[in-house]
Specification:
alpha/beta; six-stranded parallel sheet; TIM Barrel; single chain; 10 helices
Length: 217
């Protein structure tokens, strides 16, 4: 386990901070809350960043968690190989799956990558009858457009096995500070944070299709 913090002003470098941990150390930390899991029905959610980027560590960790009968969830954008998904399928109880933009050109514009693999992987997980919760970041004039919402509703409705829940995540500017630390431009600068009550109409629209809908998550 290691933490590093460098004086950025003195050395003109970014601040590096975090912990190096083995699978065993993560399991030990997770087991400290095992009584809470049993009482609440909860478990361990692995997120990031993107947890699929550390696939070997992820597989081993998931295996160990399931050996302890701990519920496991993966928070992913779905931009990974089919082979990686197959490796974690036996050990993952729930997928928290990001969907942002249904139009491929716009997805490339705003994320830098195609959404083709993301959509195909979601269909694959549905066919495997995995429990999936869609997480939809709602960004004004980008993801909340009539065209995008309509396409998303249609796509979710055509899943091989019905997806039952979607979480609407109102835009906030917390990530702006991260961009500043990385000396990268924040492209959504000036965009106001969204309030939950701004998503009530959208919530009703998704609910009309039979989905259970939460605002936030």
């Amino acid at each position: 386990m290691r933490k590093i913090a460098l004086d950025r002003k003195r050395y003109n470098v970014l601040e590096i901070t975090g912990e190096w941990m083995t699978v065993e150390e993560v399991i030990h930390r997770s087991m400290e809350d095992v009584l809470f899991y049993e009482e609440s029905g909860g478990g361990v959610t692995l997120s990031g960043g993107e947890p699929m980027e550390q696939i070997q560590f992820l597989v081993e960790l998931l295996q160990k968690l399931k050996e302890q009968a701990i519920h496991t969830a993966i928070d992913t954008c779905g931009f990974t190989s089919r082979e990686n998904l197959k490796k974690i399928l036996p050990y993952t109880d729930l997928f928290l799956y990001d969907l942002k933009l249904m139009d491929e050109a716009k997805h490339i514009k705003y994320t830098g990558v195609s959404n083709k693999k993301i959509l195909e992987n979601l269909i694959f997980l549905s066919r495997q009858k995995k429990k999936i919760i869609i997480r939809f970041p709602v960004i004004p004039d980008i993801t909340d457009t009539e065209k995008n919402v309509t396409a998303m509703i249609r796509f979710i409705g055509e899943m091989p096995v019905r997806i039952k829940e979607i979480d609407l995540l109102p835009y906030h500017s917390i990530g702006k500070q991260k961009y500043a630390r990385l000396h990268k431009p924040f492209q959504l600068s000036g965009l106001p944070d969204m309030k939950k009550n701004e998503l009530l109409d959208m919530k009703k629209r998704f609910e009309s299709t039979g989905l259970f809908v939460k605002i936030g998550g």
